[in-house]
Amino acid sequence: MNRRFDSLLNELAKVEVSDRACNQFSRISGELQENATRRHNLRLYLEQLAEIGPKMLLIGEAVSYRGGRLTGIAFVSETVMLAGVDTTSGFVLGADHGYRKATPGPKLSTEASATMVWGTIRSIAPLPLLWNAFPFHPFTPGNPFSNRMPSAAELLVGAHFIQRLMKLFAFEQVVAIGNSASQSLQRMSIEHALVRHPSMGGKNQFVEGMARLSQSK
């Protein structure tokens, strides 16, 4: 097994979040077996991307309850993860590559943002790496099946992991998907571009922004 990402995965698993968020990688609380599967999925994803050699890091705002909360991977629903994606850099994700469903039952989650993001980045070579400014799932109080914007304190927690990724990969370009991600990168003094988040009617602007950035490389 590749040990390159052990430290990062261990650090993610140890983070204690508030009662308005979920650490989908935790070893000490919540869905322990499911969380182990999510750590497994994230490791596979990072290993696949390491082989590709991504030059662009795409930073979203936070994990969503239909995406990374279930799979362990930013902007990846269960449907996208298990079906896999045929990209310019080669076929990534997919059950054939060892990705596993963490949740019980046959039903697979879908997420509009995941579908739109992968439909856009699949043609970028080398394939960008996806992450979140807050790599855990923030939700509105009392409703874990919801999404909310990460707080300033949560973005501070996430900043550490962005720095870790920057050391693990040789990125040449960082792109914020949405304002929260941009604000976090600004606080870290990381030069970056900003594109519209594809949700809430922002798909066309996201696609146009990514096309502009990929063509200017």
How would you briefly describe this protein structure?
The chain is α/β, with parallel strands linked by helices and 217 residues long. Helices cover 41% and strands 14% of the residues. A hairpin with a 2-residue loop joins strand 3 (85-87) and strand 4.
Features:
alpha/beta, 4-stranded parallel sheet, 8 helices, 8 strands, two-stranded antiparallel ribbon, 217 residues, Uracil-DNA Glycosylase, subunit E
Question: Which helices and strands, and how do they pair?
Answer:
Elements: H1 6-14, E1 21-22, H2 32-52, E2 56-62, H3 68-71, H4 78-83, E3 85-87, E4 90-92, H5 112-121, E5 129-134, E6 137-138, H6 152-168, E7 173-177, H7 179-187, E8 193-195, H8 203-215
Parallel strand pairs: 2-5, 2-7, 7-8
Antiparallel strand pairs: 1-6, 3-4
Q: Explain this structure to me?
A:
- The chain has 217 residues and is α/β, with parallel strands linked by helices.
- It has helices at 6-14, 32-52, 68-71, 78-83, 112-121, 152-168, 179-187, 203-215; strands spanning 21-22, 56-62, 85-87, 90-92, 129-134, 137-138, 173-177, 193-195.
- It has one domain (6-215): Uracil-DNA Glycosylase, subunit E, CATH 3.40.470.10.
- It contains 8 helices and 8 strands, in the order αβαβααββαββαβαβα.
- A 4-stranded parallel sheet has the order 5-2-7-8, sandwiched between helices. The protein has a two-stranded antiparallel ribbon with strand order 1-6. Strands 3-4 form a two-stranded antiparallel sheet.
- Helix 5 (112-121) runs parallel beside helix 8 (203-215) and helix 6 packs across helix 7.
- The mean pLDDT is 94.
